[in-house]
Design a protein that fits this description.
There is one protein chain. The chain is of the alpha/beta class and 349 residues long. The chain folds into two domains: 147 residues, no CATH class; 174 residues, Medium-chain alcohol dehydrogenases, catalytic domain (Quinone Oxidoreductase, Chain A, domain 1, Alpha-Beta Complex). 33% of the residues lie in helices and 23% in strands. The chain contains eleven helices and 14 strands. Strands 6-7-3-4-5-8 form a six-stranded antiparallel β-sheet, with helices on both faces. Helix 5 runs antiparallel to helix 11. It starts with 11 loop residues before the first strand and ends with a helix. The chain binds NADP nicotinamide-adenine-dinucleotide phosphate (NAP). NADP nicotinamide-adenine-dinucleotide phosphate (NAP) binds next to helix 1 and helix 5.
Length: 349
């Protein structure tokens, strides 16, 4: 047994010299180096942008979606959707721990990986035969590898596994929202969340409240989502708008916030084309958090310049220290969140 690179570069097959996230192909051999951990995979969670793209590309044909995902994993040694560049995460049981692994994991522990599937060496043993191709979560079996610098969380015993997996997938969003809202100096910050009835969106609403935002606005796509969000009690105001319609969205946000843009706008929608609306909906000197994987850097950067918008724009880094525990705490403190997640993961609340 030898020691691998802590960032996993020894697992890169091609192209040479890149880190695993940028690689076309990884070596997913289940044998571990002495600082790696092998996980027996039980469930994958495709990220929302990736699943939506696959679903749209195959017209909702589950068998075709399953075959595409199976093919990506077999070819790339990881679940890295080439169209969206995004992945997701997984849960499983720790199967083997190298003697020099610094992760503090023990064989038999049930964990969720908190690093993206786009950089996690993955081998599937069942051809995804138990998945109908129609849901973001994939029951499966296989092996995944964690490097010395990966992160993982032991699954909580008070949440159903599919819910915990969905929470961990997006747990970077609430932690970043809390940080951004809490650092604002004036006491009347307004926060608008786009895609507010979704997973990262609803957690972001709860985080904004937790960070003492004065007003929290949830933007959803239709009346059905508006009803669900209103029942959750997570937002002070709920409004319906298409986040890809810049003028309509900005008009809705500004009307809901008494004639002013939001101090913080959080983009949690899983479709492309929300950059300009988010920028127009944000007050001067405000902040836009782009958590969505469907965000385009040129559209955001050139859009803000073209609108002469003096806004700070943040890419939603999926990692913030303490993010998993913080998101679990929000789930425990907000019954409305549990209901929304149960709906999304088809678990009885
Ligand atoms: P989700 O649960 O599917 O929520 C997305 C929400 O956006 C849904 O409620 C959806 O409504 C709504 N929506 C879709 N199109 C809309 C439109 N045109 N106008 C207004 N609302 C619209 O997704 P999620 O899991 O929270 O993920 C959200 C985004 O974060 C995805 O792009 C995902 O890939 C990304 N993500 C980022 C990171 C990171 O580290 N930055 C990590 C994980 C995920 P319907 O359900 O009615 O379609």
């Amino acid at each position: 047994m030898s020691t691998g690179s802590p960032v996993g570069s020894h697992r890169v097959v091609s192209p040479a010299g890149v880190l695993p996230q940028a690689a076309d192909r990884l070596d997913a051999t289940p044998d571990i180096e002495d600082d790696e951990v092998r996980v027996r995979v039980e469930r994958l969670n495709l990220d929302a942008a990736s699943f939506r793209q696959l679903s749209t590309a195959h017209g909702g044909d589950g068998a075709a979606i399953r075959e595409t995902v199976r093919g990506i994993i077999a070819e790339r040694g990881k679940m890295h959707n080439p169209a969206t560049g995004s992945g997701g995460m997984l849960i499983g049981t720790v199967e083997a721990v190298g003697p020099r692994s610094p992760l503090g994991l023990r064989p038999g522990q049930k964990i969720a990986t908190l690093v993206s599937l786009t950089l996690t060496p993955l081998r599937i043993d069942d051809d995804l035969a138990h998945w109908d191709g129609l849901t973001e979560q994939i029951p499966t079996t296989g092996t995944a590898i964690l490097f010395a610098r990966s992160i993982a969380a032991v699954l909580p015993d008070d949440l159903p596994e599919p819910v915990a997996l969905a929470v961990f997938d997006v747990c970077g969003a609430p932690a970043l929202v809390r940080r951004v809202v809490a650092r604002r100096t004036h006491a009347t910050s307004t926060v608008a969340v786009l895609g507010a009835a979704g997973k990262s969106g609803s957690l972001s609403l709860a985080a904004a409240r937790d960070a003492h935002a004065a007003t929290v606005l949830g933007i959803v796509r239709d009346e059905a989502e508006a009803d669900r969000l209103e029942r959750s009690g997570l937002a002070d105001h709920t409004a319906v708008a298409d986040a890809t319609d810049p003028l309509g969205l900005a008009e809705t946000v500004i009307a809901a916030l008494d004639g002013r843009g939001a101090d913080v706008t959080v983009v949690c929608v899983d479709v492309p084309g929300c950059e300009h609306g988010a920028i127009l909906s944000t007050a001067s000197h405000g902040t836009v958090v782009f958590f969505s994987m469907a965000t385009s850097f040129p559209a955001a950067a050139l859009g803000a310049e073209g609108l002469a918008a003096d806004v700070e724009m943040l890419i939603g880094n999926g990692y913030v220290p303490g993010h998993a525990d913080y998101a679990l705490g929000l789930m425990r403190d907000n019954p409305g969140l549990k209901d929304l997640f149960a709906d999304r993961t088809e678990v009885t609340a």
